[in-house]
Amino acid sequence: MKSSWPEGNRAGGPEGVRAGEPRVPTAIAVTSADLALPAQDERTMPAVVLRDLDSRPLDQTLLEVQGVLDQFGYLVVLCSKATPEPVLRRLHTLRSLLESDRIAVFRPELPPLGVAVLARQLRQLATCDLSPGVLASAGRLLTHYIHAGAVLGSVARLDHVPVGLKAHAKSWVPGAQFAVVAHPEPQLVKAVQGATLKGPEFSTWMLLARGQLQSDWITGFAKDWGVHGLRETPLPAESPAWWGTGRMIEFCGYLADLSVLYQLVTSVRQSSCHWCGLDVIGDRCVFCSASPPEHPSPPPRALQGRTPA
After folding, report:
1. Which residues does residue 209 pair with via DSSP β-bridges, in sequence order?
2. In this structure, is residue 304 part of a structural domain?
C-alpha cells in the first residue's frame, strides 16, 4: 500500500522539517466523510474515513484498519457522543481482534462539528515532530480551546445543555430560536437582537454548518465574537441527533494557525505512560486509557527513616 504521507514533512515543527529524523506517523480517522473537513493548507494530513463500520463485513473492516496500521503505525479515531452504538462496538471489536494498543478511540465532549474541527487540528499537527502518544493526548488539551454551539429552532429535546422550564415552554412558540453554547461552558439565550453569548478570550475563526433553519442572528453574533472570518461546511449527519433537532445552524470557534496549535501542545510538560511507555501530556494515555498510578502519601516526618519493629 502506497503511503499518502507528504514527502518532506516526516518530522519537524510547523516552521520546517529537520531532515533525517526517524519518526512514526500517526493517522487521524473519523467515522463518516462529513467529519473529514477540507484541509486548510497543503501540509494538513488527509483524514482516514472509516465508512459504514456497522454495515460492512467484519473481515473487510478488519483488513482496512490493519492496512492503516501497516501504513502509518498508529491510529487515532475521533467520534462524537452521537456516533451510533453499533459503530462504537465495531471499533472496539476491531481493536480487540487486532490485539493492538496502537489504536485509540477518542470521544471528546464536543458536538459533531466540534469533533470535525478537532480532527482537522490533529491532522495539522500530525505533520510535526510529535510522538503518537503526545499527538493523541493533544486532542484532550485542544478540546478546551474549541467553542462549540448552535442556533436551534427548539430546545425541547436538548440533552447536552441544561434547559430551564421557561426555555422549554418558549421552544413551543412558533418561530422561536435559541442560541446555545455547549462547550466549553454551557450557555443558552433566546436568539433575538441584542442577545449574545460569552465567547473565547482569543481570536478564532468560525465554522458554520446550516441545517433546516434560517437565521440572521448568527451573522451579528459572529461579529460580537470578533472572529477572523466565517467559513461554511455541510451539516454533519450526527448533528441533529446530538442537538435534538434538525432545525439548527451549528457553529464552532476554533484556532486555525498551526504554529499556535504546536506551541500550545509543546508548552505542556510531557511524561511517560507507566503502562504502555508512550510519551503523553495530561493525566491519561489515550491509547491504553491508563491514568497515573496513585502514590501512597509519605509517612509523617517523625516516622521517616525508622524501621518497623
Report:
1. 250
2. no
Pick the closest to residue 262 from 242, 243, 281 (CA basis): 281
Amino acid at 287: F
Candidates 89, 85, 119, 82; CA nearest to 238 is 82
| 141 lies in the same domain as 38 | yes
Residues 96 and 153 in one domain: no
Q: Determine the distance from the C-alpha atom of residue 5 to the mean position of all C-alpha atoms in its chain, rounded to a whole number.
A: 21
124: domain CATH number? 3.40.50.10440
Closest C-alpha to 104, from 42, 181, 40, 29: 29
Residues sharing a CB contact under 8 Å with residue 186, sequence separation 6 or more, in sequence order: 161, 162, 180
Q: Using the 3D structure, point to which of 114, 145, 176 is the last residue of a domain.
A: 145
C-alpha cell of 156? 425541547
Give the Å distances, CA to CA, from 252 to 31, 56, 63, 190, 297: 19, 32, 35, 18, 43
In angstroms, how far is CA 172 from the centroid of its own chain?
Answer: 33
pLDDT in tens, the chain (309 residues): 333 333 333 345 554 433 333 444 899 999 999 999 999 888 899 999 999 999 999 999 999 999 999 999 999 999 999 999 999 999 999 999 998 889 999 999 999 999 999 999 999 999 999 999 999 999 999 999 999 999 999 888 888 887 765 555 455 555 789 999 999 999 998 888 888 888 898 889 999 999 999 988 888 888 888 888 899 999 999 999 999 999 999 999 999 999 999 999 999 988 888 778 788 888 778 888 766 555 444 444 543 444 444
